[in-house]
Amino acid sequence: MTTTPPVNKLGLSKADYNGSPSTLCNGCGHYAIANVIINTAYELSLDPTRIAKISGIGCSSKSPAYFLGQSHSINGLHGRMPSLATGATTVNRNLVTIGVSGDGDTGSIGLGQFKHLLRRNVDMVYLIENNGVYGLTKGQLSATADLGQKIRHGGLNETPPLDLCLEAIIAGCGFVARSFAGDPKQLQTLLKAAFSHRGTAVLNILSPCVTFNNGPDSTKSYVWGKEHGLPLHELDFIPLDHDEIRADYQPGDIREVALHDGSVVRLKKIGQEYDPADRMAAIRLLEEERAGQTFTTGLLYVNEERRTLVEQAQLMDLPLVQLPDERLRPSQDALDMINAQFM
């Protein structure tokens, strides 16, 4: 007996959100992230034909091929994904945009573009698949590699790593989270919240490279991530149209964060008191973490008050890409009038 696969509110099955077969190494964290993206888009009933996937160069930037095969996709130059995302979201504000980058693509050649994208608050989800190496070019050290780390092809790292979450918060990003490819439940909740945020939502995801950087002494390995991971809170995402809000937390232990579209992220305290709306607390946490050999995961910082680039530019509701030529180009009479002012 053939059973019909379940469908979401759009009438789509989870298979409708798949991509091409993966060519990543077996066990690669990037493939685990791709599966989380598929599950999230399916459960949120996102229209795959309204999603734009944008990436640069690297193993991480190959991964958009492995999810959302019906979506628009641009694989651009190394470190230039933010420019492509800025252009795509400006001309078509109706797109749901996912930028996929790596620690090299974002933290090295693309660092300047990353910081300016955050300043402008481009409306998109920005995923950093962080493994500490350039896996596509055989394992050289990246800008997030551990101080003192030694790998076969990269030698000894004698420079301190960049903390891309700290860089994002300092640049003014309004949604900064960190997770682990080995914790798909937490990652999926954070990704759902990121889609509901207005503006740039950065998720820095520890995504182990099983070929070049998965030793037990590496902070980018599966073993280290599982042993040293320290969740800030238990997470629950409640979409706007949810019929029943779960109430399985003890009173006083919950911090609710309302997102722009009316969805809510519930944060259940595990240990320390932590307010993700406190920017200085987030910076302090990340600075203290440097010496503590811990890997804090969860929603680090959120601010729903910033205006997006489209709002700052006061663009009309109709996407620019849908404007007819007569509204995009001034008439000959209008040009003559302007030119006459300078004669």
The coarse overall form would be globular
How much helix is in the residues? 25-40%
The profile of the biggest β sheet is: 8 strands, mixed
Count, helices? 12
The CA-CA distance between the termini, in Å, is 81 Å
Task: Fill in the CATH topology.
Answer: Rossmann fold
Number of DSSP-assigned strands: 15
Q: Please give the domain count.
A: 1
Rg measurement, Å = 21 Å
Describe the fold and architecture.
The longest helix is centred in the first third of the chain and has 15 residues, at 29-43. It contains 12 helices and 15 strands. It has one domain (14-312): Rossmann fold (3-Layer(aba) Sandwich), CATH 3.40.50.970. The chain is 30% helix and 21% strand. Strand 9, helix 7 and strand 10 form a beta-alpha-beta unit. The chain is globular and about 70 Å long. The protein starts with 28 loop residues before the first helix and ends with a helix.
